[in-house]
């Protein structure tokens, strides 16, 4: 007799920790770092590198998804490799700071 309608179903793994950050919080923290140091891009870049370590650790523990990590890393790459004039352009680009932003590729896919 393996069937019984009143048995407990196996519990799903749900992370119900109110202290965990969501994607918007991570992006907001990155933006805050950049805006607080808008006149000092090198200091902001130093703090971004520090944040990258935190992102990777959070991803390794399962608190940050791979997709969200890739989005944060993509933003960080653009901020770390741009020159000072492009720095202000990235800070002013509202789409850059939205969840789900993806870099526009210069290449067109022709199939």
Oligomer: single chain
Radius of gyration: 20 Å
Helical stretch count? 4
Helical content stands at: 40-55%
**Which stretches of 5+ consecutive residues score pLDDT under 50?**
none
Q: Assess the beta-strand content as a share of residues.
A: under 5%
Q: Provide the succession of SSEs.
A: HHHH
Written description of the protein model:
- By secondary structure, the chain is mostly helical.
- It has a domain at 23-97.
- 54% of the residues lie in helices and 0% in strands.
- It is elongated and about 70 Å long.
- The mean pLDDT is 83.
Notable features of this structure?
single chain; 111 residues; mainly alpha; 54% helix
Question: Helices and strands in order, then pairings?
Answer:
Elements: H1 23-36, H2 41-61, H3 66-81, H4 84-92
Quick recap of the structure?
With 111 residues, the chain is an all-alpha fold. It has a domain of 75 residues.
């Amino acid at each position: 007799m393996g069937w019984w309608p009143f048995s407990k179903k196996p519990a799903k793994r749900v992370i119900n920790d109110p202290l965990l950050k969501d994607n918007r919080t991570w992006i907001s923290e990155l933006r805050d770092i950049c805006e607080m140091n808008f006149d000092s891009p090198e200091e902001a870049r130093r703090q971004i590198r520090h944040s990258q370590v935190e992102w990777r650790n959070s991803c390794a523990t399962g608190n940050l998804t791979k997709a969200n990590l890739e989005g944060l890393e993509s933003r960080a790459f653009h901020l770390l490799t741009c020159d000072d004039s492009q720095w202000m352009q990235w800070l002013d680009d509202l789409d850059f700071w939205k969840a789900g932003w993806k870099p526009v590729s210069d290449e067109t896919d022709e199939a």
